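Would you mind giving me a polypeptide sequence along with per-residue structure tokens?
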Amino acid sequence: MHTPFPSLTPSLIRQLDQPGPRYTSYPTAPEWLDSFSESDYHTALQRFDSRTQSLSIYTHIPFCTQMCYYCGCNVTIRKRKSNVADEYLEYLAREFDQVSSHWCDRPTVTQIHWGGGTPNFLTIDEMTRLKTMFDTRCRISPDAEVSIEVDPRSVDRDQIVALRALGFNRISMGIQDFAPEVQSAIHRVQSVSEVTALFAWIRHAGFKSINVDLIYGLPNQNIANFTDTVTEIIRLKPDRVALYSYAHVPWLKSHQQLIDVSALPDQELKLSIFIHARQLFLDAGYEAVGMDHFALPDDELAIAFRSGALYRNFMGYTINPADDAIGLGVSSIGYIGGCFSQNVKDLKTYYSRLDSGQLPVDRGIELSRDDHIRRWVIQSIMCQFSLIYSNFSDTFGVDFFEYFPDVDLHLQRCESNGLVVRGDDGIRVTPLGRFFVRNVAMGFDAYLKSQESRRFSQTI
């Protein structure tokens, strides 16, 4: 048995380990409506003023050459030698044209991110072609964060040099774990030497920031072998580290059935792995940002956290440099004009919608006033680990407990479990509560009682 925190008993772990949202949005994605139509999305786009408002753009490149068993992303498995990327870029341009037709002027873009899938599935020529789409339709701010996810197993040095020349300044890569027994179990094998060489290429090319993703709770993980992984990461010294909890949801991602559930760490071991890794990063000089990110003190993410400007979206914790966001590509998500929207997840349907002259919207939701209020509260808890009553009343013109008359019991339970401390001016999440901040936020989710628990991963 592993009890990594003095107040953290096995019974409390069992009590708090329940299905719950990650709150990368509110309302959460299961509450978005199939009835949200292309017409609704056009209306939302029309509310965006390209002359005065700034924009963040996410572009989804779905292609991978093989499936990683743990993956929760929307991916399409293809061989690199096929012409699928060229065809996909053609349709991306069509979607971009339809979206940008609503703009009376080229908007200022302050954040660009290419995710996937594997964006470096694209050749250098294809990357250049895609970046040109942005350059001709938008004004990219000189201090914009321009980032891309790359796969250390397939990216090459020429691509890194080309990406920097195209204006990219931050690179994110999934490592997950270096232990061979873990890599074999998740069908993702990459060596320390490959990643070390990639770091050298990135730094030599002059990128501003390197972000690394790790996952705890994978099969065959334990404190000893994950300590070895974290030690290697600290040696490489990325600017940011995201330490995500593995979400085992085979009812949503059928390929996860290939993972041997008997090899997954139990609740206590999984939490112990996280807490031990967290301490290693803190001891190495990283700052804890939000519930599962770490950043060097001079990184923009750490600065945003200290200043109260941290934001949470579908890429996890990030800075919030834009008024609105759009998503381009299959399955991509955006938030614009007070609405969340998501594109269709199937590549064939994505193409057919655009062939018929339609935007490929699958679902979405227009936020009510109550949604906006609860979203603000949940963002405060998830990002600042605090909720100040006067800030709430100044923002919405209503007393906190007048608006949430039934929340006191939830806060009492959180306080009795050691997750928050309540004061006259507000609530603050404790060091223990940071591990279970999703549980604290769940008390403000108006939809949660109606949602099926199996839609969500466990909070541990």
User: Anything to note?
Assistant: The two ends are 16 Å apart (CA to CA). The chain has a mean pLDDT of 93.
